[in-house]
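Regression test case RT-17, inverse folding.

Input:
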């Protein structure tokens, strides 16, 4: 186990400073300024040809996705904000780690420079909101759901850069009976229907913390954009978007199981939601008009939070017959990235002019296949059914 840079003396000093300077559970309020009245909730530009603007949220338009590009540029990545993007000064930023799951419960505060002394790691993973595809509960299944009416664009693939949470927690001094970690954001408190729920926060079990959880400052070779968590966000690969807390202010490590409304009231269907399901999208306009040709090549992507994609099938006759799509990297359907997405294309031969629905159904290596109907829940989470994409051949 290595903890470069933070030698024992540095750590003891940091720990001692932390113990005297801060009380457990204090989340800096500096960032709440970002939510000032009148300030935009999203800071990056939202060009209408690439993003659909929902106010505090925005989704990527699939018909603007470049089939030659594996990663989603941060500029085009969906944004999901409970409040508004805060402006945080990286020079004074600190992550607080505290709780009775640490050998020194008062904990430490680590600046970016200290965090960057740990071994750097990079990983590519699909980043997706739990509610992605939510609008199809209504338009395809006739069911009522509440929340942002995403189509399929609340998703992207990012190459993240950061350090392992495991390395940091080990260096800070983790107790063997620690079971739970709660991550809290520095954005303003979330007020819904007159109720103040406090800062956006969500707990996860120590197993995930010690497995592949990262503290990330980089995306696709750049610094995180403010809207995506600058200067530091948590990343729980393969898990639902809310698990990856942006503008990470604190981590509470506990010997008891922690909870928050973000894992009890929301993002919960018979238990806290964690691993994302299997989904697919075509890189094609909704209601696209395609000139009749003997060969029409359609492209798209499929992804899963659990495992690489094993197989993608396409139907142009409403699900009667299915044809295998061709992966872009044969034999390596995900393009070599563990929890990235699979790019594929499909050649549609000699369609007659007329109205069609294109159905795409993916299966992951964990054996999960997209169903015909998604399991309804009032929050509209996990719409994983095969989407019926309307096109007209003219
Ligand atoms: N602090 C904080 N973290 C957050 C959120 C938030 O509102 N505040 N939204 C969550 C949700 S619901 C999702 S889907 C992802 C969205 O990340 P992105 O905006 O970088 O795409 O961030 C998660 N982390
Ligand atoms: Mo989300």
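Golden output:
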């Amino acid at each position: 186990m290595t903890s470069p840079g933070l030698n024992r003396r540095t750590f003891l000093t940091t720990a001692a400073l932390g113990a005297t300077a801060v009380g457990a559970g204090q989340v800096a309020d500096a960032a709440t300024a970002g939510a000032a009245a009148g300030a935009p909730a999203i800071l990056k530009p939202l060009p209408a040809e690439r993003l659909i603007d929902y106010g505090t949220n925005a989704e990527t338009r699939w018909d603007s996705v470049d089939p030659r590009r594996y990663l989603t540029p941060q500029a085009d990545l969906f944004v999901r904000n409970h409040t508004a993007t805060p402006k945080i000064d990286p020079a004074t930023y600190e992550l607080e780690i505290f709780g009775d799951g640490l050998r020194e419960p008062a904990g430490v505060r680590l600046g970016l420079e200290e965090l960057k002394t740990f071994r750097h790691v990079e990983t590519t993973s699909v980043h997706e909101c739990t509610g992605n595809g939510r609008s199809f509960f209504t338009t395809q299944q006739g069911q009522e759901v509440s929340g942002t009416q995403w189509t399929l664009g609340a998703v992207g693939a990012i190459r993240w850069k950061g350090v392992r949470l495991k390395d940091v927690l080990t260096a800070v001094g983790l107790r063997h009976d620690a079971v739970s970690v709660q991550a809290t954001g520095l954005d303003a408190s979330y007020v819904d229907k007159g109720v103040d729920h406090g800062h956006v926060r969500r707990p996860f079990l120590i197993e995930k913390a010690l497995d592949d959880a990262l503290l990330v400052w980089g995306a696709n070779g750049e610094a995180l954009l403010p809207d995506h968590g600058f200067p530091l966000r948590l990343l729980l690969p393969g898990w639902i978007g809310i698990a990856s807390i942006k503008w990470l202010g604190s981590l509470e490590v506990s010997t008891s199981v922690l909870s928050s409304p973000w894992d009890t009231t929301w993002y919960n269907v018979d238990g806290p939601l964690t691993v994302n399901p299997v989904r697919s999208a075509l890189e094609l306009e909704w209601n696209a008009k395609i000139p009749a040709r003997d060969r029409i090549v359609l492209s798209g992507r499929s992804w899963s939070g659990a495992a690489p994609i094993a197989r993608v099938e396409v139907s142009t006759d409403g699900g009667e017959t299915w044809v295998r799509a061709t992966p872009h990297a044969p034999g390596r359907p995900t393009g070599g990235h563990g929890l990235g997405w699979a790019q594929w294309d499909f050649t549609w031969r000699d369609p007659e002019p007329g109205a069609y629905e294109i159905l795409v159904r993916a299966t992951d290596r964990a054996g999960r296949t997209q169903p015909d109907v998604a399991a309804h829940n009032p929050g509209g989470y996990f719409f994983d059914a095969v989407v019926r994409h309307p096109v007209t051949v003219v």
